[in-house]
Amino acid sequence: MLKFAYHNLLASQHFPSALPIEKLKDSAAIVGAAHQEILSDRRADILGFYNLPESDISHIESFITHLDPKFNTMVVLGIGGSALGNKALYSALKTEAELPKKLYVYDNVDPVFLHEILAGINLDTTLFNIITKSGTTAETMAGYMILVDLIKRKFPADYQSRIVITTDKEKGFLRQVIKQEGYKSFVVPDNVGGRFSILTDVGLVSSAFVGIDIKALLSGAAAMRMRCECTDIFANPAYLNGLIHFLYYRQGKNISVMMPYANALYDFADWYRQLWAESLGKRKDIKGRDIFVGQTPVKALGTTDQHSQVQLYTEGPNDKVFTFLTVDSFKHDYTIPNLHPEREEVSYLGGKKLSELLNAERFATEIALSQAMRPNANLIFPAIDAYHLGEFIMLYEIQTVFASKLLHINPLDQPGVEAGKIATYALMGKAGFDKQRAEIEEYQKERGL
C-alpha cells in the first residue's frame, strides 16, 4: 500500500509557519460539499474513471493471446492523455518488471523525433497503435498518414495486421477507416476524458502488449478508490492532499513540484503535470465567472535536480508545495565497493547500497526544505510494480477532481487547448476556418511577421 507522509505539510514546533491542523479540521463543510458533488457526478456517469477497476479486459487479453508472436515492438501515436500514460507505465516497469517487449511513443510532430523512432525499430516486427478519440487531432493524424502510407507500401499483403486504432466507439473519421480497412480497434470511452484515460484501452493495450500485469494495475486502482471513499480526510489521502494543496494555493503557493527519487517514476511526473495543469488551470468557474485559477505543476528528479533546482527551492520564493516520490525497495541494486578505505573523503560510502544513498539524499532534501520552512510531503512506494502504480493513478485522479470541486471549476474541459487547435487548423489550411485564418493574417500584419 502507498504511504502518504504529510507531516511536513502541517504546522509543528519546528515548522510553525505551515498549515495548522485546525485549518484542515475547520474545512469539514467544504470537504463534505465537494464529496457530495463527486457522488452526484458519479451517479450521472460523468466521472467514468472511478469505474475502470471493474472493466472487462478480456478483449485485450484475447488480442494479446492471438497476436503474431513476431511483434516485439509497439509504436503508439498519440499526444497528451493518449500518450503520457502509456509512456509513464512503460518507463516505470520496463526494468523493474523486466518487460520482454519494447514501446515507443510518438507524441510530438518533431520530424527528427520520428526519424529516430523509425531508425530504432524493425518495421517487420513492429505494431502501430494510433490513439485519438476524435480522429482529428492534427499531430496524431499527421503521424498516422506518414506511417500508414509507409506500412502499406512496405507490406501491401498484410498491412492491416500491423495497425490497430484506439478511438471513439461509434463515430469519427477513424471509426470509418476501421470499417473500410478492417483494422483491429479499441475504444476511448465517452465518459473518460483523455488525461484520465490511462486505465482504459488507451493505456491498457500497450501495457498488456509489453507484458505489464494490467489486472494488478486495476486491482491497485480499486484498492486506492476504496481508501478514498470516505470524508475523513486523514483516512482519505486524495482528499487530504487535495485540500492541503488548495489551502496552500489560497496562501499564494501556486506551484506544485513533484520530485521522484527514481528515474523510473520521472515520466509519471509528466503524467501528473498534464492532469493537474489541464484539469485545474481555468479562466472561468462553473457559473461562468472569470477567476483565473490553477496551480502550476513542475517536475524535478532526485538526485539530479538537487544540483540544479533545490537551491531555488530552499532559498528562492516561498511559493511552492513539494511532493517526493520515494521507493523503499528496488529490484536492482548495487553495493558501493570500499576502494579507498584510507581516504575519509570517500570511505564513508564503502559498503553502502546505491538505493541507500538515493533515499538518504531524498531525506536530506526534505530536511533542507523543512528547515527553510517549505511545505513538503513524501509518497512512498513499497516497490515499483503494477499494483502500486494503479494506486498512484487513482489517487491523483481522485485528488484532481476533488481539488476542482474546492475551486468550483470544471476539471474535464480544456477550452484553452481548443483555442490553440483552432489556430493550428487555420494555419494549416483546414476547410471551414477562413475567418480564423483572416484573423491570424491580421495578427501577423500588425506585428510585422
Task: Quickly describe the structure.
The chain has 449 residues and is α/β, with parallel strands linked by helices. Helix content is 46%, strand content 14%.
Oligomer class:
single chain
CA radius of gyration: 24 Å
Write the element-wise H/E pattern from the N-terminal end onward.
EHHHEHEHEHEHEHHHEHEEEHEHHEHHH
CATH class of the largest domain equals Alpha Beta
Q: How many domains would you count in the coordinates?
A: 2
How much strand content do the residues show? 5-15%
**CATH fold title of the largest domain:** Rossmann fold
Distance between the termini: 55 Å
Order of neighbouring strands in the sheet with most strands: 1-12-11-7-10
Mean pLDDT over the residues? 96
* Helix count, DSSP H or I runs of 4 or more residues: 17
CATH fourth-tier homologous superfamily of the largest domain: Glucose-6-phosphate isomerase like protein, domain 1
Q: Helicity, in percent?
A: 40-55%
Low-confidence stretches: none
Q: Name the overall outline.
A: globular
Topology summary:
Elements: E1 3-5, H1 21-25, H2 28-43, H3 58-66, E2 73-77, H4 84-93, E3 102-106, H5 111-120, E4 126-131, H6 138-154, E5 163-168, H7 173-181, E6 184-188, H8 201-210, H9 214-227, H10 237-250, E7 255-260, H11 266-280, E8 282-284, E9 290-293, E10 296-299, H12 310-315, E11 320-329, H13 344-347, H14 354-371, E12 376-383, H15 386-407, H16 415-427, H17 434-446
Parallel strand pairs: 2-3, 2-4, 4-5, 5-6, 7-10, 7-11, 11-12
Antiparallel strand pairs: 1-12, 8-9
Helix pairs in contact: 2-15, 4-8, 4-11, 9-15, 10-15, 11-15, 16-17
